[in-house]
Amino acid sequence: LHSKPKLDEELLEELEEILIQSDIGAANALSLIGEMRGRLPADGDLEEASRRILMERIRQLVGEGETGGGMTVTADPHVILVVGVNGTGKTTSIGKLAYRFGRENRKVLLAAADTFRAAAVEQLGEWAVRAKADLIRQSMGADPASVAHDAVEAAMTRGFNVVLVDTAGRLHSKVNLMEELKKIHRVIGRRMPGAPHEVLLVLDATTGQNGLNQARVFQQAVGVTGIILAKLDGTARGGIVVSIRRELGIPVKWVGLGEGLEDLVPFDPGSYVESIFG
Amino acid sequence: DLIQKLDGAIRAIRNTGKLNEKNIGEALRGIQRALLEADVHFKVVKEFISAVREKAVGTEVTRSVSPGQQVVKVVHDELVRLLGHAHVPIAFSGIPPSVILIVGLQGSGKTTFAAKLGALLRKSGRDPMLVAADIYRPAAIKQLATLGKGINLPVFEKGTLKPVLICKAAVEEARKQGKDTLIVDTAGRLHIDDAMMAELEALKSALHPSEILYVADGMTGQDAVKSAQAFLDRLDFNGIVLTKMDGDSRGGAALSIRAVTGRPIKFISNGEKTDAVEPFHPERMASRILG
Ligand SMILES: Nc1nc2c(ncn2[C@@H]2O[C@H](COP(=O)(O)OP(=O)(O)OP(=O)(O)O)[C@@H](O)[C@H]2O)c(=O)[nH]1
Ligand SMILES: Nc1nc2c(ncn2[C@@H]2O[C@H](COP(=O)(O)OP(=O)(O)OP(=O)(O)O)[C@@H](O)[C@H]2O)c(=O)[nH]1
Ligand SMILES: [Mg+2]
Ligand SMILES: [Mg+2]
Predict the structure, then answer these.
(1) Count of H helices and E strands in chain A?
(2) CB 3.0-4.6 Å disulfide test: which of A131, B52, B65, B96 passes with A98?
């Protein structure tokens, strides 16, 4: 005979609020708590058990099958396309990645393929200086695909190990901008079959449920291989990545923890879950 | 859509002729779900639902609309009421130049909005000057200067001097040139970064701005309340700007920030170009949130 151990209403509400506050989503919160209740031990400290079971489940959901965050450089040059909606932290994240790869003794090339936004090229240029990486740029208003092409070309002929392609922020709901991104992706692949080897979607940790739409549309357009969850040094927890992993299979690879060169770490499911319940 | 979802849930209402506690319960659960999915903060949702329950209970069910439509109407009207008035104007000070401070989290759209506001105020007959007070972000000054140049608006910059000194110099320059409004673009910052929040407090006490606008990303989730509350506590800002509303996010952050701070939403930014800004319309926002 089974009798479900009774969790008090107050505890259930508290747990649900922790989940919802982290932007995991109301539906997910409900199903996670439902699942958890089914796995509770018959006796013992239910409060401790409920938390532990929830944390373990979420850790499993975001980290399933991973050998750790970050990524391995698989090609030479390894081409990484960085995409996302406006203001999420793409340019800054590229600076951080460039610095990290540089510290691994790799020759890094940045492609200033945001040819639209005011001072976007200058901003990336500053990061190139800080990270000691080279920069490929054209004039403002140039075809971004052309910049990406030139960068891959330069990397192949001049021996760069990693190419990081910065693109303009774009709302996924803007069809013409998504078409432009597809073209950038195509042109890169034409110059180097198999490239880009990574397509990283930069997500702002403060983003709510719309983050799932973003991931879905970018995934459909250019195939996203990983997420950089930026601004996790704030109070937002970016819980939408749970839905993104569940529904689209896209893992978080990096976490942005600040505005400086060293503020990027490989995603660690354990500490991520701790930060939600911490 | 929401009305169809609710009609199924509250068919029982038809039999009683009145909206009562029991038959409204199911409908409200649907509304609660919709609001959470729209990124309205869960505490704001709770308070909103109880306010709606109070208003809806006892309402006669009229023949001309379905019970679902009736509940949605109560919800819609309450949402519009809560979201506040349209067209709340910017406050200017008697002695020029009036100073408007633009603040908010990283990447929310402040620099772009500063230029937009400059264009708007010029159209309404004022003589504004933009001030580049973000000394941290690479090429932030260049970004504002480029935006200003693009629409022929003067941009005051003084390199990476302390922001208070830049702004004081800007006030001097504005007086010299007869500019009646200064729009100060500040660096994005975390509400939990005490030193950076203190910098804003210092700017406020040095400049006595007539208006402080909190610029928030329209796709912000539950965190909208935490950050807005912190900025309010430390700066007592006058108005809210929601950006990137040309996207497909439901914009629940609008209700969250408005409900928690009580400050009016003054502008909606809906595009990257300098003319992509409009005054706030509560009706439109309510429909968007309800999806
Ligand atoms: N606190 C914090 N701020 C960050 C982080 N990553 C980026 N930022 C800040 O977020 C703001 C926007 O960063 P950008 O790199 O310009 O973002 P972007 O996606 O390239 O923006 P667009 O190109 O305009 O779409 C800047 O102020 C960055 O310093 C992070 O991990 N933590
Ligand atoms: N689609 C869209 N993009 C916007 C809107 N407002 C700003 N942006 C874009 O959002 C990105 C960030 O805008 P910024 O003005 O640099 O944001 P910020 O708040 O000054 O950023 P920080 O100074 O780093 O904190 C840029 O790519 C802008 O073009 C908007 O209403 N719609
Ligand atoms: Mg950028
Ligand atoms: Mg800015």
Answers:
(1) 10, 8
(2) A131
Beta strands in B63-210 (DSSP E): 98-103, 128-132, 155-156, 181-185
Is the CB of residue B258 below 6 angstroms from any atom belonging to ligand 2?
A: no
Distance A136 CA to ligand 4 centre (A): 24
Paired tokens of A47? 């409060």
Per the listing, tokens 């929830």 go with A54
Give the pLDDT confidence of A199-235 residue by residue, as tens digits: 999 999 999 999 999 999 999 999 999 999 999 999 9
Nearest CA of chain B to the CA of A21: how many Å?
A: 5
What are residue A218's phi and psi, to 5 degrees?
A: -65, -35
Q: Which residues of A touch B137 (CB under 8 A)?
A: 123, 259
pLDDT band at A67 (very low <50, low <70, confident <90, very high): low
- Residues in Cβ contact with A193 at an 8 Å cutoff, skipping those fewer than 6 apart: none
Task: Find chain A residues with C-beta within 8 A of B39's C-beta.
Answer: 208-210
Over residues A94-110, the pLDDT tens digits come to 999 999 999 999 999 99
- Residue B204's CB is within 10 A of a number of other CB atoms, namely 18
Mean pLDDT computed over A33-47:
91
User: Mean pLDDT across the stretch B88-110?
Assistant: 97
- How far apart are alpha carbons A96 and A230 in whole angstroms? 11
User: Residues lining ligand 1, judged by CB closer than 6 Å?
Assistant: A 84, 86-92, 114, 117, 120, 168-169, 202, 230-231, 233, 256-259, 263; B 106-107, 137, 188, 190
Q: Does B247 touch chain A (CB under 8 A)?
A: yes
For residue A3, pLDDT beyond 60: no
User: In this complex, do B247 and A206 lie within 8 Å of one another by their Cβ atoms?
Assistant: no
Peptide bond into B97 cis (omega under 30): yes
